[in-house]
Structures are given as C-alpha cells and as structure tokens.
Amino acid sequence: MKNIFKKESVENYVKADSHLVRTLHAKDLVALGIGAVIGTGIFILPGHEAALHAGPAVVIAFLVAALVSGMVGMAYAEFSSAMPVAGSAYSFGSVIYGEFVGWLLGWALILEYFLAVSAEATGFASYFNDNILAAFGITLPKALQAGPLEGGAINLTAGLIVLIVSFIIFHGVDLSKRIENIAVVVKVAIIILFIVVGVFYIKTSNYVPFYPAKFHSSPFGLGGISTAAATVFFAFIGFDALAANSAETVDPGKNVVKGIIGTVIVAVILYVAFSFVLTGIVHYTKLNVDDPAAYALKVIHLGAWNKIITLGALIGIFTAMITMFFGGSRLVYALGRDGLLPKFLGHVSSKRAVPTNAIIIATIIQTFFAALVPLTQLASLINAGTLLAFAFISFGVIPLRHRKDIPNDGFKMPLYPVLPILSGLFSVYFIVMLPNLTKVSVSCWLILGVIFYFAYGIRHSKLQQDK
C-alpha cells in the first residue's frame, strides 16, 4: 500500500546531492538574489501596476510585497540552514509535509520558474527591439516581434536570449556567478542613477491623487493596492531560487541567510525609490508600457540617459533570467532525482557538475513560451505558484522546529511562532487577491499535476519504493 504522505529524509537528499559542487558564497548568493529580484519586476511591472491597479500608490504595493517576502525569506533561510539540499520548496515540503504536498509545491514551482524566465525574455525583447535596434534604424518585421497571440509569428529576440542564457547555465556555476556578480553591480548603479537624475524632474501634481478612487475596491478600499502587491510578487521569487542553490553553497547555514537578507534590504530600497520617482516623472495613466523607465526619460527629453537606462534594464533582466534558469533547472533535477519526473532528468554531468538533461528540457520549454506567449499573460500566471510555496514554507517552520531528527544550529526565524504564522497568512491573503483568471489557470495546472502524480509519479517514486 503506497503512502502519498510518506516523508523523505534529509540524509537521503544530502547523499543524493553530493555530486553537486559547493562553490557559492554569500556575495554570490546576494548577486543571484538581486539578479532575480531586480529584473523585469523593477523595469516593467511598476508601470503596468501603477496604470492598472494602484496609481502612484504602487510604491506602497512594492513595499508591502517586499516586507512580506522578507518575512518569508527568513522562513526559507531557516529551512536552508536545516536542509542544505537542492529543490527548495519541493524538497522542504517532501520532508515536512510528505511526498504528495512536496510534489504539488514542485509542480507549482515548475510553472513559476519556466514562465518567469519566459516573461523576463519577453521583457528583454521589448527593451532591446524598441530602444537598441531602433537606435540603429533596425526594425524587425512584425512577424518576428511577437507570437501568434499578438498578431505575429514568433518573438525572435525573446527566444534567442533564452538560448544564450541556457549556454551560460550549461557551462556551470563558476561562469554563471562571474557574469552575475559583475552585471549586478552595473545594473544597480544604473538604477541608482535613474533615481538620482529623476528626482529633479518630479512633478508633485503627478502624485495627486496618490491612490485614485477608481482603484478603491474591497477589502477596506485596499483592493487595488492588494492586487498590485499580489501581482508584483513575481519580482520576489528570487528567495526560492537562492534556496534551490543550497546544495551548491559553501556553509549554507550562514551564507543562504546572508544572501536572502542582503537581497531583501537592497530590493526594498530600490523598488520603493524607483517606483516613487517613476510615478513622479510621468502621470500613472501613461505608464502602461513595457519600458516605463525608458519612456519616462523620453518624456523629459533625456535621450542620452534613456540609452543608459535601457542598458541597465537589459543587464537587469538578463541576470534575472540566469537566476531563474538556475532555480528551475535545479528543481527539475530534484524531481528527476526522486523519480517523480523521468529519472534521466536527475542526471548530473561529471564534467561540468550540472544537471544537463534538466537544463535542456528547461531550455526547450522556456524558449517555446518566450517566443510565442505575451508578457502580460506569462506574468499573471507566475504569482500563484510563488505565493503557494511562500504559504507552505512559512507555516512549515512550525513542524520543522518540532522535528528532533533535523538539527539546526544555524539561522532560525525570529518571533517564533508569530512571524511564521503571519507570513503564511499574508501569503494566503495575496493568493485570494490575485485576478480570478490567474487563480483558475493555476488551479487547472495543479489538477493536471495531481493527475500526473497518480498516473506516473507515485509508481516511479524512489521514496515509495524504499522499504
């Protein structure tokens, strides 16, 4: 008789991941975290959410999302300290809740990671086509600028950038972290430059009304801000990606914590300041564009600065793709390692110490979505998986503390059990506040995951085969 709630052991995971090489330090994780968080989220989403849901109060939405993500990040840090293994929320869930719950988290996160990379790629294509190619007088045919859902044939630039990122990931952790560490410094400097220059062009009239009445919906009139915050959680999935790299981190009990906390601090400061300046330069009603920062600088006739910001956006989105690709490929590897997906996906190259087959599958799927599906439809589907994982990991700190077989001499989430419960409840609240289409779409994905588990996963699971 198979037990779908049978729990995996940390020892088995540590042993299975022993062929992955630990090379990442705290500074590398901060670079990866900022690489994920400071990407499409900061260069594109503030404009869309200001125009569609919150007005200038999008600043509050980002602040709320960052603070909740920071609380959840501490829960991830505790899990990574106690379980330094690949697979992040999937592996954590399998140990604490049992295989079936772990599988559902993993299945939800597959959607999250793959669509995140694809969404970043379409954001990259928008900036590149409209601001770089156009500067040289090059205009791609309409058929090569967008997928069939937008009246084209294929988003060529988006597909190509996924392939380039795949090439970097395929060549191992060392190459990826070297590129990430340099690029993160450049893009943060450019964002700070936008904030400093933009402050001098703020029109205070653009902040009135700060939270437009048309966005005042339930609960308590905060529906617009809540929906914007729920949507921009897409920007903060880097925490899960950091945890996914625990098996390749030196002294994860200390370094993963530093990586997450460092990422939270930088993200809060940059997102809030960037959004505040952006909505001060341009009235929120004009910001429903895919390149709001570049557009804002065009409005105030700073053409030269516009090119610098575009460079920052391209670097930012590129590094975000690297981190998300990292996390997604490691998750697919973990599911293959455990037999819930075909076992060839759990193969690790002896030459490069990377899960080559998982990377190939991730490349194919992500290139397909990036080339054929619009950004807005991709981004709307990502957040539910993120928030679902956030809720389970937050609440999971409580049973984790009661597991005598999982010692943890490293980081522990403060204000226990109040903070884990609060971060879990906030995550559930923001799931409720997501657009209905998003909730329906992700529910269908989870149902498909349940079917796949009982049709394939449970029969091939290594855990179910262990006596």
UniProtKB/TrEMBL annotation:
The keyword Zinc-finger does not apply. It holds the Pfam family AA_permease_2. It comes from Companilactobacillus kimchii. GO terms for molecular function: amino acid transmembrane transporter activity. InterPro entries: AA/rel_permease1. Keywords: Membrane, Transmembrane, Transmembrane helix, Transport. GO terms for cellular component: membrane. The lineage of its organism: Bacteria, Bacillati, Bacillota, Bacilli, Lactobacillales. It is a multi-pass membrane protein. This is Putative amino-acid permease. The keyword Disulfide bond does not apply. The chain crosses the membrane at residues 29-48, 54-77, 89-110, 152-170, 182-202, 222-244, 256-284, 304-333, 354-375, 381-401, 413-434, 440-458. It is found in: Membrane.
